[in-house]
Amino acid sequence: VHLTVDGQLKNPFVNHFAFGRWFAENGLWTATAAILAVLRIDHAKDSNGDRIEVKPEFTTGVVIHPKPFRCSFESVNTAREGQLRAMTNLK
Q1: Nearest 5 degrees, angle CA 80-CA 88-CA 23?
Q2: In 10 A of CB 38, how many CB atoms?
Q3: Using one digit for the tens of pLDDT, what is the confidence trace for 25-68?
Q4: How many Å apart are CA 1 and CA 8, to the nearest integer?
Q5: How many C-beta neighbours within 10 Å does residue 72 have?
Q6: Which of 6, 4, 26, 28 is CA-nearest to residue 14?
């Protein structure tokens, strides 16, 4: 940590940490786009075929998360689905 010519505080480590953050964020966007290109995410259906509405519920505590809920995943494109399955089965 040092001062720049104009008297501002500069931390040389900030740029190194920011790179990892941007890399992780871009990875999440790529994964989300791949999933949405293949799957339609919708409400779950009951035995009569009617939509089950989602009731927003959250955990309590220091970190708050949504509680699990039922949903439906339907394939939009079988060719893309096959490609995605092939990518996830690589070892």
Answers
A1: 95
A2: 20
A3: 888 898 888 888 888 899 999 999 999 999 999 999 999 999 99
A4: 10
A5: 13
A6: 4
Q: What is the DSSP string of 19-85?
A: HHHHHHHHHHHHHHHHHHHHEEEEE-B-TTS-B------B--SSS--BPP--EEEEES-HHHHHHHH
| Tokens 């309590």, residue located | 60
The pair of three-digit structure tokens given for residue 12, joined into one six-digit string: 């040389």
Place of tokens 């010519």: 5
Distance separating alpha carbons of residues 39 and 56, to the nearest angstrom: 22
Residue 81, judged by CB atoms within 10 A of its CB (0-12, 13-18, 19+), counts as middle
Whole-model pTM: value is 0.53
Q: For residue 74, with 0-12 CB atoms within 10 Å meaning exposed, 13-18 middle and 19 or more buried, which class applies?
A: exposed
